[in-house]
Amino acid sequence: GQALGVPPLHPQRRRASGYRYFIDALRVALRYARAIRVDHILGLQRLYWIPAGFDASAGAYVRYPHDELLAIVAIEARRAGATVIGEDLGTVSPEIRRAMDRHGILHSFVQRFAASAEQPLPQPRLPSAASVGGHDLPRFAAYWRDPAQRDLVETLGIREPAAALRVCLGSLAAGPSAYVFADLADLEGETVADNRPGTGPEAGNWRRRLPRSIEQLAADEATTDLMHELAELRATATMKEASSK
């Protein structure tokens, strides 16, 4: 749980307004992007409301008409020619996941959550956008420092964190995912996460900057070689997928 300082929207009043605020917010995002990610897509089904001045024990879940909201997301994405990715990690109901499939919304796949000693490089089973980690998780370099987790990757005979990250990304790039995310901060070997759930503004969440500029990264031979390698793997995977249909 994390207090983001945003007051929740009233479900009945949203409907009475024709979901104007929600539609406008989507259109602004889709004006500039051809792929958007809906953080905590469970929030389209329910939100935990806490009265001002009380602690979390005084809160309650408030339900939302998720079928209507997901339909709006699908309509606006179709109009914009865009792809939508839903963060359906954690305690997301099967109902929401089925609705995502009906509306053509991609699922989120985090390799780290699915990995095991028997299957250190798992692949998603559903249409997904895949990543090695996530913004609420420790950076790959920090994850690597945990002996229990490092043993999992060393199953592949890899001992260097940069090499392990390259293999993990390469596996996803060669797999069936619709999109693969490569975190630049992980490539830079950063150890501090973007966000630490359960903390507030004092933690400096979302304020960390990369040690190098985008221009410097684009001129870095090691980084660009990896990006080219991932792009080639994605192209090959896409061709195989197309030929199998």
Q: Brief overview, please?
A:
This protein is of the alpha/beta class and 245 residues long. The chain has helices at 11-16, 20-32, 66-80, 94-102, 111-114, 140-145, 147-154, 161-173, 184-187, 214-218, 221-243, and strands at residues 35-38, 46-49, 60-63, 83-86, 107-110, 128-131, 179-181.
- The pLDDT mean sits at 91
Uncertain runs are none
End-to-end separation in angstroms reads: 42 Å
Quick one: biggest sheet?
A: 3 strands, parallel
Q: Give the neighbour order of strands across the main sheet.
A: 5-6-7
What's the total count of β strands? 7
Instruction: Tell me the series of helices and strands, N- to C-terminal.
Output: HHEEEHEHEHEHHHEHHH
**Quaternary organisation of the protein chains:** single chain
Key phrases:
3-stranded parallel beta sheet, 11% strand, 43% helix, alpha/beta, 245 residues, two-stranded parallel sheet, 11 helices
Write up what this structure looks like.
The protein is of the alpha/beta class and 245 residues long. The chain is 43% helix and 11% strand. The protein has 11 helices and 7 strands. It has helices at 11-16, 20-32, 66-80, 94-102, 111-114, 140-145, 147-154, 161-173, 184-187, 214-218, 221-243; strands spanning 35-38, 46-49, 60-63, 83-86, 107-110, 128-131, 179-181. Strands 5-6-7 form a 3-stranded parallel sheet. Strand 5 (107-110), helix 5 and strand 6 form a beta-alpha-beta unit. Helix 2 runs parallel beside helix 3 (66-80) and helix 8 (161-173) packs parallel to helix 11. The protein starts with 10 loop residues before the first helix and ends with a helix.
